[in-house]
Amino acid sequence: MEHIIIYGSRYGSTRRYAEKLSEQTGIPAISCKDAPALSDKKTIIYLGGLYAGGVLGLAKTLRSFSLQDGQKLILVTVGLADPNEPENRHNIRASLQRQLPTELLDRAKIFHLRGGINYETLSFGHRMVMKLLYQSLHRTPLEKQTAENRALIETYGKQVDFTDFRTLEPIIQEIQRGII
Ligand SMILES: Cc1cc2nc3c(=O)[nH]c(=O)nc-3n(C[C@H](O)[C@H](O)[C@H](O)COP(=O)(O)O)c2cc1C
Fold first, then answer.
1. Which of these, 1, 38, 134, 161, is most buried using a 10 Å CB contact count?
2. From the alpha carbon of 15, which atom of ligand 1 is closest?
3. pTM of the complete model beyond 0.90
4. Which residue segments constitute the domains of the chain, with CATH numbers given?
C-alpha cells in the first residue's frame, strides 16, 4: 500500500468524502482510529472534520511524523463554514498552524471542503456546545458576524448538507500529479 487516505469523521460527512475519493483514485481509505504507520507511504491524504477549529484526529495521527523526501502530504478539512469565503479559509489555516509543526504544514497541500450538520443526530455534548455558541452569538446582527459564525447561526437547529463530491476534483488532480 503505497498511498493512503486517512479520515477523522464523527458524523459521516468526512468519511463519505474519503470513501468517494478512494473510489475515484483506487487508494484505500482508513479511519484515523485504525491508521497504520506512515513512514513507508508515498502519498498521505488526511481528511478531517472541523470541530471548534480543530481538525478531528489530525494532530494525533501526525504526531511524531515528519515528511521525508519523495513523500507527499495532502490535508483536507471538512466543515460547515463556506470555504469559498477567504475569512473562513484564513481561520482554518490559523487553526492548522496551532495543530501541526510549521515545517510539515508548509510542505502540505491544503484543501477545504464543505460538509453538513444534522442537529437530530448530534451527541448531547455537541448539541450543548452549539446551543451555548448560538446563544452567545445570535444577538449580534448577522451582517456584523464573521462568516463562520453566520454559517452557524443560519444552520442552527437544522439539517443541512453542503456535501458536493465535485469539489473533490482538484484533490484528485493533486493526487495524480504525485502518482503519475
Ligand atoms: C461541536 C461542533 C463544532 C464545530 N465546529 C466547526 C468549526 O469550527 N468550523 C466549521 O466549519 N464547522 C464546524 N462544525 C461543523 C462540522 O465540521 C461539520 O458538521 C462537518 O461536516 C462534520 O464532519 P463529520 O460529519 O465527518 O464529523 C462543528 C460541528 C460541531 C458539532
1. 38
2. 26
3. yes
4. 3-115+162-179 (3.40.50.360), 117-160 (no CATH)
